[in-house]
Records
---
Amino acid sequence: MKEAKLIEEFTTEQRALLPKVQLKNTFQIDKIQLVAGVDLAYWDVEGKTYGTCCIVVIDFSTHEVVEKVHSYGEITVPYISGYLAFRELPLIKAAAKKLTLQPDLFLFDGNGYLHYRNMGIATHASFYLNKPTIGVAKSYLKIDDIDFTMPENREGAYTDIVINNKIYGRALRTTKNVKPIFISCGNWIDLETTTDIVMSLVNKESRLPIPVRLADLETHVKRREY
């Protein structure tokens, strides 16, 4: 299928899902027991692209790993900026089906509401996982040529990312003297809770929340294996 046709089809689906996004909590934060990090990695072999999705589940209180699953397969959807979810969802769904434990919340290495059409991977995937989601990006996705404001150099400092008078996400400094990350609601969660949860999952080993960092590390392991 030609790219223009794919973009038309993908855009239609994103726009249909957007009214169903709720940037408010559908859970009680003190009831959260398990949280999961999700990340993907890709590589090419003989002209074909393959990928792996790794999901790492940790105990929200102790931060101990309680389950790890992954999926693997050939990637058939081309990379199109702004439509990454359609490339990644088949592997995400395949990995999630292998979970024997059910996380209360999923954190993605990628964007959620901070997206051209407010439908980044964390937001889009929520409809298939049926759980609240958070987007955690290492780099900034510039939308409508709007830059972010650098937060103060202290742990927990943040600045809202405002585009067309709407808050899309936050630039969050999780660690002093380390560059910020870019967080956004995925779905069924508000931005204040998103910020609190991300900060509660950061330790001295990384600026990323623990489950996202562990999922990222796991993708490197699986890529080497395959």
Note: The chain has a mean pLDDT of 97.
---
Amino acid sequence: MAVTGEAIATIKAMIVSGELKPGDRLPPEKELSERLGLSRNSLREAVKSLEIIRVLDVRRGDGTYVTSLEPRLLLEALAFVVDLHDDSSVLEIFEVRGVLEPFAAARAALVITEDQLRALSQSIASVDAAAPIESLVEHDLEFHRLISEAGGNAYLSSLIEGMSSATVRARIWRGITQDGATARTLSEHEAIVAALASGDPERAGAAVRSHVEGIDSWLRAAL
């Protein structure tokens, strides 16, 4: 296993250094194993591991390529792990959201465009207090995604989206069991848009923090 780890580290170093770039094809297995001083079996295990986490793309009969290395692609493995959460670990997910999403909103407040603000307002207008819970949850996911994307950090946005999708059950549960959940959510979203429009990062971060912590507090009481 140590030898396989060494092979993974070596391939990673080749990518980090720029020797291998997104879309590049790796040298043939025999050539690469000899160059790295590794057995072909160790190299195969390393390639298999890097394929699982979407760093490499093994194309049968064609060769092995470095993927696009886009944040969304690389964070798929994390999203898979998050999807396996249980009702207690979802509390930990909300704790992490309570740290990351206010930061993302603060970033967004400094650079958000009029078009992006308009998209947020349109998302709010797409649902009302009488809308089905599923529609509210769909809006909520889109609303938070738009904010994180507006901040301009693709890794942060992908990380937040991966965690956010894992809390869908909790959001639906809240919508069904808590009186006024839809109206409260929409009101808080409007306050967040106003904070973003003000260009004040502290105000935007505080508005999102209050929103996420409100859900977290309800969930803790419900559990």
Note: Residues 2-69 form a domain with the Arc Repressor Mutant, subunit A fold (CATH 1.10.10.10).
---
Amino acid sequence: MQQKYKNWMRKNLFSAVTILLSIGILAFFMGTEEGARNLRHALFHLQPVWLLWIAAGVLAGWLLEGYVLHLFCRHLYKEWSFGKSFYVGMVGLYYSALTPFNMGEPMEVYNMTKMGMNIGASTSIIAVKSLIHHAVTFFYSLVLISFELNYFQTRVSNFSFITIFGLISNSIFIILVTMFMTNEKLTNSLLRAIARFLDKIKLHKASEKFYNKVHDQLMVFHDCSKIIGRSFPLYTIAILLTLVQITIASLISYFVYRSFNLKGISVFTMVAADTFVTMVASFVPLPGSSGGAEGGFYLFFREFFGPAILPAITLWRISTYYLNILFGGVIVYWGKRKYRGSESKNIQN
């Protein structure tokens, strides 16, 4: 029993530290006397109808996350069920909330292969989906913020620095993923460089085994990427649904605003601010973009919420972050028992 407890602690220690870190950041925001007083006041005056809208927005985001992934899975593997896609999507959200540098995507690939999908195909699907999500968020946020540029320039401190950080980090990611997907010579050169390094440190057998195994999977990856890349209707539907998903996610900040019985700020302005904050904070190298998400929300929304800004951050993070951990943990546990315990054949491309 004691050994099982130690094994459980080893596996879950990082997750526990991550959650405590995130709670600590929120506690820091709420640690002032004014913050605690405003929180108590806000809790007694929240509007139940808008809390239901928040819940509906969160649920819609989860379903769309699974469905967009399902479009690509079904494109390569006709037998793949929506239940599996929803499970994998929640795995991504769950581990992105618990690990630094948003490591949810490698965990999605790992679980897809455990359910029988070829690693090349699963990597291709996650790479394409991730590229679409980041690209849509990037360009959508820039378009929205351009309409409100003068407003945010005059009201958000360090707006130029935040913009430059968001532009550079997202551009680098989009370019690298695109090159990796489309340039077989580049990925093969990177693979050879790793193999040469293993040779230099006297791991010749490991080098040869590594190259042969990964090279075969990379060929499958590029083949799958080409198959997906030829389907423009698939891309169009995925982009449109991702646009809807991002819009719904951004509307949650407006629902939070209305739940405090506040009025006067347009939906468009709040969606623009939320999308931009999400785009910039996505590359903060802490679990769930902790610190960056709260800080960005504070900078962009404090004028909207006034004295209620700290309770608003709390409710917003509960809705967009902590629920991913709570519900994601349940789905990860359930899906592992239901899907990973069953045998299924690899995809034949």
Note: The two ends are 46 Å apart (CA to CA).
